[in-house]
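Example: Flagellar motor switch protein FliN-like C-terminal domain-containing protein.
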Amino acid sequence: MTMINKTNLPASPQVLDPRLLGRPVHLLPHFAAQFAEDLAAALRQPALRRYWDGFQLEASGFVGPPDSSQSGRWLGFTSGAGDAGGIAFALERSLLLSVLNQRYGRRGAAPAPSVDPSTVRVTATEERLAVVLGQQLASVLSKRVDANLARAHNEPGAASTELVPGSVPPAPPSADGWTLGITLRQAQSGECGQLWLALDQDMVARVLLGLLPERARDHAPARASVALGTALQVTLEGRLVSKEITLEALFALKLGDIIPVTVGRADVLLAESRLFTAAVTEHNGSLCLTSFEDSD
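Written out as structure tokens, the predicted fold is:
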């Protein structure tokens, strides 16, 4: 009986994600690091310290979408420009309640012990606070995107896009979307909470455009304005002549020796595949190929 060891079976082929083709997604961790620096700096500013005083950034990076029981409801933030994209925001309710207690609790009082969020009734104040916090963090991300785009287009003085709460609640991010996960730690209690910023496709496109290498940015508009049939470039190799000689004759060659050859039609190759044959001619001191014919 033939025994099959599963460890010897070939690995299943990796499925290509069409969203990754031709896009600098390998630079997204760099964007996440930029955002982490911006957020850490923003948390020290008075506008955000009013709400986030005592919280420290623990981690930030692109993650999968959170479970609905963990994230709660999502809030959407968009700009006035339709093509600027949007950002969805959600956070753990335990984190929201911690910020709420710190913001509206008694000054100087010891931090209240953590409670089960399911035992706390949702209030209008809590919902308004979630909108304020979401708008703060979404604006930090949007300003980073705008700064990268301004640098890419050599427009350092360009105005940042202002985000406002959307009129329609966004759908939870899909598994193939782009979601930034942020972990904040409360300094006194040491407890950590998570929040998420999900980017829609328009916002992702702006993020990636701002991350394009300088050379790619310079050539991107030119490629977009030219039809594919005239812009597609390939490298053809012309093989003018080939001659078989023995190894003994090869080793006997000396500088200045003449190898007699007859130049006929040249082979034109694409990645070692013979596509055409062509005649060899001389023009202004250069050898050129002409009279192309399909290879049999």
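Confidence is low (pLDDT under 50) at residues 220-225.
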